[in-house]
Design brief:
The complex is a heterodimer.
Chain A: H1 12-26, H2 28-49, H3 62-93, H4 96-101, H5 107-135, H6 147-168, H7 176-189, H8 201-210, H9 212-224, H10 231-258
Helix pairs in contact in A: 1-5, 2-3, 2-5, 3-5, 3-6, 3-9, 5-6, 5-10, 6-9, 6-10, 9-10
Chain B: E1 2-11, E2 14-24, E3 29-33, H1 40-47, E4 55-60, E5 63-64, H2 69-74, E6 76-79, H3 91-100, H4 106-119, H5 135-145, E7 153-157, H6 165-180, E8 184-189, H7 192-198, E9 201-206, E10 209-214, H8 216-223, E11 227-232, H9 235-243, E12 247-251, E13 254-259, H10 262-272, E14 279-282, H11 285-293
Parallel strand pairs in B: 3-8, 3-9, 6-7, 7-8
Antiparallel strand pairs in B: 1-2, 1-4, 4-5, 9-10, 11-13, 11-14, 12-13
The chains are: A mainly alpha, B alpha/beta.
The structure holds adenosine-5'-diphosphate and magnesium ion.
Amino acid sequence: MSYFKLPKLTTFVWKVWLRNRDVFMKTYKVNFLPPFIEPLLYLFALGFGLGTYIDTMDGISYPRFIAPALISISIMNSAFFECTFGSYVRMYYQKTFDAIIATPVSIEEVITGELLWGATKSLINATIMLPVLTAFKLIELPHALLVIPFAFIAGFLFASIGMCFTAISPNISTLNYPTFLFITPMFLFSGTFFPLQLLPEPIQYFALIALPLTHVVSIIRALTLANLSSFLLVNLAWILTVSLILFVLSVNLMKKRLIV
Amino acid sequence: MIVAQGLKKCFDGFVAVDEISFAVEKGEIFGFLGPNGAGKTTTMNMIQCISPKTSGTLEVMGMDVNTHQREIKKNLGVVPQENNLDPDFTVYENFLAYSRYFNIPRESAKKIIDELLDFVQLTEKKDTLIEPLSGGMKRRLILTRALINKPKILILDEPTVGLDPQARHLIWDKIKSLKSQGVTIVLTTHYLDEAARLCDRLVIMDYGKILVDGTPNDIVKEYIGTDIVEAENNPSVIACLKKRAARFEALGETLQIYTNNPQEITSALLKECPLRPITARSASLEDVFLRLTGKKLRE
Ligand SMILES: Nc1ncnc2c1ncn2[C@@H]1O[C@H](COP(=O)(O)OP(=O)(O)O)[C@@H](O)[C@H]1O
Ligand SMILES: [Mg+2]
């Protein structure tokens, strides 16, 4: 089963991660802006705009209900787009991967470094949102601080999903399909802007089985509302298991694509 | 340093490199010459351990390419056919990132980079982004990047492709000076003058096979002779040549006669055939190349 061969990794993974961090830091002022502004836009439009017509959602104020969803969506988008369009450009147009594998670094390490960087972007962007949401008193500290390490874990999941699509995309524009067919539905139907329980039961099960964002929103909402339950362990187990499988799969798919 | 035996590479059944054997010695410049699609790049990729061989054996510095990729890559410097400097970085940042892939500590990397930029005379471009640089500068920078880890073997895949004469000469000088420092150099090219000028030994490849190998001089002597006499392609000249068992080939309007004794052939032709323009010149690698690979256009 060469699709699920465990990659051999060394500390070279971090050299690849460092490459992306260095590029990011060259323009950090611009990079920090979108994750700061985007949640504000959603908050004003949905939370404070639409939300004035909603007394409570699931027993809490609407802005408090969607605040964790905004964090989750940002985690999803940061890692997914970094490891789809971002990685595709580096792989295909910039030939960055080709340049790196001519050194002692292996292709497995290049891909893993990219995934860890995608996860790091999720962590950075989620972290930037916390002070904004705290300022509007929408999240509970200190519980919400756990969002920071969790953003990395959840980010790694979306990075791995993205990398699988990157590995099988014949060209960069076909990456639009997973964006519209997978990311957009998740954005809307993962318990983000209304509770999952409002959906017909089969769709609820579908969301729990096949929409990773459902589990991420569930955990982050519990953290920002300081309202923990044992079901979170199921969410976490789902995320860890699927991350591991897709991580290994994405590395092998990329290897098949690049090593001919 | 590099030994291949029956080395073969297939892409989905298409044979790109067809059971070739060669041995590159320490400290020499070894050339792979051939038209586009001959299989040169594919061979380089196998040596670099970035493309697995289909069959045969290939050892670099005594190590098998299948099992010792990291150790081999540590000792290689590579100039790929396609430029792949990192456009997100300046020249200096490019090299610094690259030095990390070899685990070179930052301080020594800085020193090496400064020395190398000086070596290729690009110190003033240190903080420029890659995009605005000329093709010649990019090629020089890629050569520089390949030297960061002080490689024992340099793989140069068409190092001067698309460059103007000045830039080519500069790169040739650098290659020669690297050789004098004891670096083993493998290069591919389809420029005949480049091969003749640089290579101690070379092979000519076509359709995945090695057609000849040897020093440039020996190859020319063996396949052509020292000189070429060109005469008009007409029956009386051919009859005269056949009588003397001369080696010749018809190339359109002209006959090329391969010889070690141009005076003799020339005067015989002048004597025996109706007087026509005849030229004699010394044979070059280009003549061997065209004779072996034909004049048909590739790709
Ligand atoms: N990744 C690949 N997949 C399929 N065919 C390839 C691939 N790489 C090279 N080839 C084919 O192998 C042959 C040799 O290519 P190459 O080694 O690049 O030639 P050269 O470098 O001598 O110009 C060509 O016909 C080329 O089309
Ligand atoms: Mg080539």
